[in-house]
Amino acid sequence: MRLAIAIILPWLTFFTIGRPLAGILCLILQVTVIGWIPAAIWAVYALSQWNTDQKIRHALGR
């Protein structure tokens, strides 16, 4: 579900993973039509990094 949000509303993804400042910057980038694609790519990348961090925390038992 977060992947779909990352593609459709990239800025919202950052708020769901706890990075509100990045979400605001992404929203500013997304407002421009040209910036939509880089914003979506950035959101998908950040989401994949967040998923990796969650897996590491789970593996370490934190």
Automatic annotation (TrEMBL):
Keyword set includes Plastid: no
Compartments, record wording: Membrane
Positions of transmembrane segments: 28-47
InterPro entries linked: PMP3
Keyword terms of this UniProt record: Membrane, Transmembrane, Transmembrane helix
Record bears the keyword Oxidoreductase: no
Entry GO CC: membrane
Lineage: superkingdom: Bacteria
Pfam families: Pmp3
The family this protein is said to belong to: Belongs to the UPF0057 (PMP3) family.
Name of this chain's protein: Putative membrane protein
Organism: Acidisarcina polymorpha
